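Backbone shapes recur. Consider a single case.
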Amino acid sequence: MIMMPVQGGPIACFLRLIRFSHTIFALPFALGALIVAANGWPSVRILLLVIVCMVLARTAAMLFNRLVDWSLDQRNPRTASRHLLISKLSALILLILSSAAFLLAASAINRLTFLLAPVALALIFFYSLTKRFTSATHFFLGLALAIAPIGAWIAQTGGINVAPLVLAAGIICWVAGFDLIYATQDYDFDRREGIQSLVVTLGIASSLRLARLLHLVTFLTLIGFGVLAKLGVVYYCSLPLIAAALVYEHKTEKRDIAGINRAFFQSNAFVSAVFLFAVCADRLL
């Protein structure tokens, strides 16, 4: 296979490597949980620390994923150019730095975030290994993102309650659902390489039906979160928009790779953005 030269400077290449634009998926849920926990604006200090922790944790997780899948990505036509974006040694150094910075930032919030930060880091790293021994890897990816609102809630309150746990359950189902759709692109490669995936185990048609069910559960958990968090009319009025975005995502299942990728980003970015807007409108206006 002939590789095209990599375009862009080192920062652009790094951001492409870690898919920085996809930070928009989890960050709004963390900020929404933070605003609900604070019952309004959190302090500037807590807000900035939560954002820093989110970005650093995701950066570390993506770098770890790229390193453990380095040779695998080279064999997959969809990901074959990733190793050209940055050297393996540079990725390792950046992984160590981002992990250390995350632990430091978490320790500056409160005692519980300090104690749980290594656990959070271990969980988000663990996802990258799951495809080697379980077909439930999509749910572990969901768990990695679901940590975000729980961590934000703990950052604000120093404790935990049911509301962020329900939201986290919804995020697990949401992420697992859209990852199943995304994974259909790699069906032939995963089967050939012996990679554990529900798409390989169940087949494409059954996996897409499961994705629809998971997104239905996601919608129900968002209603449950609203009830537990005592959110108002604006929040509930936003839920049909989220439902429409999820339906749209499933309407794109049979598109080509470019179409799936475009719908994947647009739909999921819209879901998280609407959630944050609705929470802000309820708590801040």
Remarks:
- The chain has 13 helices and no strands.
- The two ends are 55 Å apart (CA to CA).
- Residues 146 and 169 are 7 Å apart (CA to CA).
- The chain has a mean pLDDT of 87.
